[in-house]
Design goal:
The chain is mainly alpha-helical and about 350 residues long. About 55% of the residues lie in helices and about 5% in strands. It has a three-stranded parallel beta sheet. Bound molecules: adenosine-5'-triphosphate (ATP) and magnesium ion.
Amino acid sequence: MAFKQRVFSGVQPTGNLHLGNYLGAIVKFVALQQHYDCIYCVVDMHAITVPVNVWGGPDVLRKSTREVTAAFIASGIDPNKHIVFNQSQVHQHAELAWVFNCVARMGWLNRMTQFKEKAGKDRENASVGLFAYPALMAADILAYRATHVPVGEDQKQHLELTRDIAQKFNKDYAASIHAHGYGEAFFPLPEPLITGPATRVMSLRDGSKKMSKSDASDYSRINLTDDADAIAQKIRKAKTDPAPLPSEEAGLAPRPEADNLVGIYAALAGTSKEAVLREFGGGPFSSFKAALVDLAVAKLGPIGAEMTRLVADPAYIDSVLGEGAARAQAIAADTMKAVKDIVGFVRR
Ligand code: ATP
Ligand code: MG
């Protein structure tokens, strides 16, 4: 059976949104609106999988949820043409996640690097939710039977797990799926969309670590709400090496910090690393960094300003989320009814 093409992706309302989230995910969300029906979700249920002092508690969660929504809209996502909502308003995510908890295997989840990284050394003390995170993520996507999922490189493994869950569900329940008129497969195997020069934006302080909301140093990341001065300071202080920029992309391979800055420039300018090196190769970092500051301020400044304007009106943001949730739920409820029939849950 051919599945209706649909895009789904989510961003957690934890900490400050940064350039990695923007270039790795949000820029792609915006572009995909032209050719697909898109559903973009603020995944607040994922946010509470880490300790409460890390996600910040109820007031911070509400604030961050509205901030991520504002970032979506400020970046160019149209909540009227597409769907923007927060996960906890559509209970089918949690319901389908339970079914997927029973489809996914311990061995599969044990291999997830995000769990290992976030749980750290004290795994016994990590929440059960952090371990089960990928099953909820699979439910987020498959509640809409989405076919395409734009994400950063760090989410590739979770997308593979989503496909494994979809495939095992389709196989375990094949006879019931067929008997209920859904043909050979009920769930599509969603494709990750991980493309472009900035699928993994690295920390500005350490080229071996991904730029992250949770890094203790604010100098490691550029936040979407940073003003021009902060952006300029962070780029000027960004770690580099003493050699001039190479003229060929191959020259970036052993130089993670240079590679990262060139990738950021290329993504912000909507071009390739090769094209950036044609312009700046052979030159010193100082002039390249100055150009990068100008470009970053020009691109991010208006988004930060619009975010500030939008979050000043929480009633508007909440109405966007509420209307989006109602539209999302209409789709997810149909999926969940079918899943109940397929699994054998008696329903009204
Ligand atoms: P956390 O540390 O709380 O997991 P995060 O920065 O990873 O925060 P998420 O909400 O988990 O943010 O991810 C949102 C999207 O941003 C995902 O598609 C993820 O792949 C992408 N993303 C996150 N960090 C980067 C990065 N450094 N470079 C490119 N994409 C990224
Ligand atoms: Mg993450």
